[in-house]
Amino acid sequence: MSLSTNTKRPASGTRSGAVPSWEGHWPPLAYWVKVVAIVVATFWIMMGIKAVADILLLVAVSLVLAVGMDPLIVWLSAKMGISRGRVVLVLGAAVGAIVILFVVLVVPAAIRQLGNLSNDLPAYLSRVQSEGGWAGNFLDRTQGIAKAQAFLQGLPDRLGGSFGTVLGIAGRVGTAILGVATVFVLTGYFMVALPRLRERATVLLRPEVRERAEPVIELALVRIGGYVAGNAITSGICALAVTIGLVVLRVPFAIPLGIWAGFADLIPMVGSYAGAIPAIVIAFFVSPMTGLLTILFFVAYQQFENYVLVPRVMRNAVHLSIAAVIVSTLIGATLAGFAGALLALPVAATIKVIVIEIWLKGRAREGDALARKNLREIQRQEGT
User: What is the pTM assigned to this prediction?
Assistant: First the structure.
């Protein structure tokens, strides 16, 4: 008996057990397992970065400070004929001595003057109210003197009666001290290891990329170092000038106000105004004329800093436009507060170096006329 082989094949897509066309292009199960694993790993990495964001921020601040101190370390090492490690030890001891002198000489005076402010504030307000004007009328309508006296008298009881408030203040102070100590230690380590870290960073690149990347890294480090050193110089001059000016104008609490002005001056663009506001307010407590003279002093110093001091100190440092400075500072302050505002300009300067050296110069070498024109304009503005 023979079996017939003349059977018809069913049409595609209609036979029993046939695989639909879309399933033929569907990725296998192993692909989806890899996708899920990558998504989960990315999520956990992002959560880990968020958890240690404050630590990473301290590391970034320390690295930027170390880069800023590198030219001084190289110069001292060559002049003194000693290693980088010994230079860092000498600088660390000098900074420690300055901190101890500050704590011994300045902090007690600042505490005394702040205590005098709480004691003399009602008298200042009474003087303003007796002289009339819009400020005196405002204090009269709102009973500002009585409210200030009640607040100052009840402040010790509120602080002493709220153990949680005391612990909260102590915790914030302790966190700030720990953060400063961490930055101090990490900055010392980065200052010693910076040449080795720079070499390791270039080793990670492929040989064909390394030759092009090394000058970019070097220029970025120069810009960051110039910014840090220049900012430290201008802030120190600001603190000294404000302290002397307030002493001459006989504004109370000149030492802490001058220190605050120098510290606030570290913040680009808006720091000078933040440093001036407390001094102006206290000056008006002395007299309206003292307040006006203090305003004129800060305006004059700001003009000197913007048009004389900063251009001389920060020349060839970051080369950023006013718009770039404002936008980068606002973004940095929004993302990470004071530290973000402090790091904003070094980051922006580094991004500009990367864009010019890698992208714009590459386009110019390829014959792009517009890129070549913009590159010449940038070089003319930067004096290179």
Answer: 0.66
